[in-house]
Amino acid sequence: MFGQLSHELEVNVPASEAWEIYGTLGISKHLVEDGSAFEKIEVLEGDGVSGTILKKTFMPGSHGFTVHKEKFTKLDNEKCMKELKVIEEGYPDLGFTLFRVHFEIIEKDNDSCIIKSTIEYDVKEEAVANTSYANNDLVAKIAEVAKNYLIKNKATENAA
């Protein structure tokens, strides 16, 4: 069974500032510091470009599993777009044959942008009951952490 979900969050910072966090490994640091979704994020291979592999350890009880590995499959700095695919543990262990997340920073105007996250998944017929694990909760949390950091950083710069 194939499915697709989408989430959007508007942020009152230029798209270039939001992409600085999403287009690098910088978002990982903020997600761990936030402490609401991830306990640990390890870079197993790469430096944030296409082909980078991360191992994410979720906070206890925050997901239906504790760990998954993901690979950056696309990174386009011109289009402010990054795509990743879960390659081991987590979703595949629950019967998902595909779990891909596409992040895009869309410029709204000079001072605001939209963080758009799209999830595509395919789950084996015998694991259809696990489709509830494919939801927007995590991408919404990631966008919210990024927004909070960007707004806080902007306020700090304006105060200086």
Automatic annotation (TrEMBL):
> Per the record, what is one GO cellular component?
cytoplasm
> Where does this protein have coiled-coil stretches?
none
Q: Name one Pfam family in it.
A: Bet_v_1
Q: Which SUPFAM superfamilies match?
A: Bet v1-like (SSF55961)
Kindly list the GO molecular function terms attached to this UniProt entry: abscisic acid binding; protein phosphatase inhibitor activity; signaling receptor activity
Assigned keywords, A-Z: Alkaloid metabolism
Residues in domain Bet v I/Major latex protein?
Answer: 7-152
A single Gene Ontology biological process assigned to it is: defense response
Superkingdom of origin organism: Eukaryota
Q: What is this protein called?
A: Bet v I/Major latex protein domain-containing protein
Q: Which organism is it from?
A: Quercus lobata (Valley oak)
Gene for this chain: LOC115959024
